[in-house]
Amino acid sequence: MKIFQYLLLVLILVLQSCKGQNDQEEKPLTGFNKVELVLDTEFVTKDTITQKGTTFLNATTKQEVSVLHHIEDTGFHMYNGMSFKNQDIGVIVGGAGLITRITKDGGENWLENRFSRFGNPFYSAAFSGDNIYVIGDSEYVFTTPDLGENWNVFNTKDLYEKRGYFFNKYYKIRFVNQQVGFITGYGYINGKDEGFAVILKTIDAGKTWTTIEHKGLEKETEGISDFVAFSEKEIIVVTFSGRSYKSTDGGLNWQLLFETDGKDFVNLNSIAFSNQNIGLIGGLAGDLFYTDNGGKDWRKIDMPQDGDGHKANISDILFTKETALITTSISSDYYRDTFVYEFNIDDASIKPFLTSDNEEVLFTGESFGIQAIADEVLILDRDNLYKTNTLNK
Prior knowledge:
It contains 2 helices and 31 strands. The chain has helices at 2-26, 35-38; strands at 33-34, 45-50, 54-57, 64-69, 78-84, 90-95, 99-103, 109-114, 122-128, 131-136, 140-144, 152-155, 166-175, 181-189, 196-202, 210-211, 224-229, 235-239, 243-247, 255-259, 268-273, 279-283, 288-291, 299-301, 313-319, 323-329, 340-344, 350-352, 369-373, 376-381, 384-389. It is mainly beta and 393 residues long. It is 7% helix and 43% strand. A 5-stranded antiparallel beta sheet has the order 1-12-11-10-9. It has a 5-stranded antiparallel beta sheet with strand order 2-8-7-6-5, with no helix packed on it. Strands 3-4-31-30-29 form a 5-stranded antiparallel beta sheet, with no helix packed on it.
């Protein structure tokens, strides 16, 4: 009898253990839920798009340019960000309707996911291992572990529930290393007079996210547009209010690096550093500033004008080995001959980087993303994604 009771107890413990393991496997990430359980599935769609690969010659560099992504009738399609893990696997994100397109074969095929029936877009994406994280004009952090086949979401409103009803826009996500990452953006609590800068942080590769109650960013009522992180502790941000700040303690405290006021006000929305000393920040109307001493001093750089005399928004910056590539954006009804420029660090000169003599190649010039993969550079232009070699291999 005692032997039977002992065997029964062992069986119960084994079954409970298996049940616990199964329950653990069903939970995708801490605080995350399957997208089908959270969003209105009537407007969650999935589609596969095949692209016909084309090429043209970069008239400036005399190197071939591949078109990895293109839409004939763009409608309201607008891609605001991208992230490529390698030459084959990458994601572009935008709107209208919280859209992602993911490729695992270098752009020949794209899996599209759409999560909203409204015009709200995604702004940024980042890889953490095999997981892709996507953020934008939504309270949710989206993630997929299998290149878009399945999705989970985390509601960041839960982080602010004690303060009131939370509205937000998240503009940038980046991972510093395999475990640590940041999300920056804008937040507003219903009933309050002003908004505030938002910083979210993960220390477990995106499984959980927490807020950083920062000090020194109280003036930033329009939010943080972009940032660069040298390490988990050392971070520099730019804001829509025209300032740049630095933190050396992981975002808890901030010191002002750069500020424009009055008639010289600049709306800043892009930043990049090649090392802890050399960096560029950019904003609306072609405002570009250069530092070679870590932000202690800044020099204004004159950007070229468009054909109609305007200077475009500096939307993203990429440092290569000896230069920086600057991509720009301007919303207009005409096509632009040049929207990507090369900045020479030695003499601070700027010249066009991507041009074409092919009459069939028309640049929209609404570019919000540029990234290097090995010796190649990827350039996003509204619905087009170009790939070409850098000048300084």
